[in-house]
Design brief:
alpha/beta
Length: 254
């Protein structure tokens, strides 16, 4: 099965993991709608260079009216969405006692409220069309806690449970809902987190495959759910190089 001619909506596709997903879906034949507050010109140029069709819709994912307007425009201009991928997300690396309510609310607004709104607007259009595929980008932080990431972990935990609930409710409409949980991926957001401190070497020591991920690694897992996984729903696939499986660092010579 391919996505030839089907409409795929990707939030946060102007860069990083979202861009990698958009390009992979375009390669599979989808007509890609890029939803982002940032400019999507570079993503559209990359899509065009591969012969894929794409269009950018400037959207504030935290605002219901903006998301509804974007999905309505997509339906009118490209067609009814068959795939929705929620890749938009932000990160806060702060001690819990110093985390402000404003920071917490901002992270939850983008990572949870935005996902909720996009899922709702897309699903309302998928139902009369006979079905669809929703893939939510989670994180290893939806499975395991990390110090200094209270807001981020809380948001990703919420995203995981939202994914499972939607899978249950939307199954009767032939809509599957699954999650992909990246480990540390080489993106601008990942670079800000890793920096020049000791975290990078620690993460690699806990990663059996011995490297950080790339957006293309995450995109392949998304394509599995979008293209061929017709009897899989409510699941989370962690694409992390084995990080969550490793209790101790992988030491040389052992």
């Amino acid at each position: 099965m391919t996505l030839d001619g089907r409409v795929a909506v990707v939030t946060g596709a102007s860069r990083g993991i979202g861009r990698g997903i958009a390009l992979r879906l375009g390669e599979a034949g989808a007509r890609v709608a890029v939803l982002d507050r940032l400019g999507g010109d570079e993503t559209l140029q990359l899509l065009s260079a591969t012969g894929a069709e794409g269009k950018h819709y400037e959207t504030d994912l935290c605002e219901e009216e903006s998301v509804e307007a974007a999905l309505a425009a997509i339906e009118k201009e490209l067609g009814t969405p068959y795939v929705l991928v929620n890749a938009a997300g932000i990160f806060a690396d702060e001690p819990f006692l110093a985390t402000t309510v404003e920071t917490f609310d901002k992270v939850m607004a983008v990572n949870v409220r935005g996902m909720f709104l996009a899922c709702q607007q897309a699903a309302r259009r998928m139902v009369p069309a006979g079905g669809g595929r929703i893939v939510n980008i989670l994180s290893t932080a939806s499975y395991q806690g990390f110090a200094y990431e209270s807001a981020y972990c809380a948001s990703k935990g919420a995203a995981l449970l939202l994914t499972r609930v939607l899978a249950i409710e939307l199954a009767r409409h032939n809509i599957t809902v699954n999650g992909v949980g990246p480990g540390t991926v080489e993106t601008a957001m990942g670079a800000d987190y890793l920096g020049n401190g000791p975290i990078a070497s620690h993460e690699l020591a806990r990663t059996p495959l011995g490297r950080f991920g790339k957006p293309a690694d995450i995109a392949e897992a998304v394509c599995f759910f979008a293209e061929s996984a017709s009897w899989v729903t409510g699941q989370a696939l962690y694409v992390d190089g084995g990080f969550l499986a490793a209790g101790l660092p992988v030491l040389e010579g052992m």
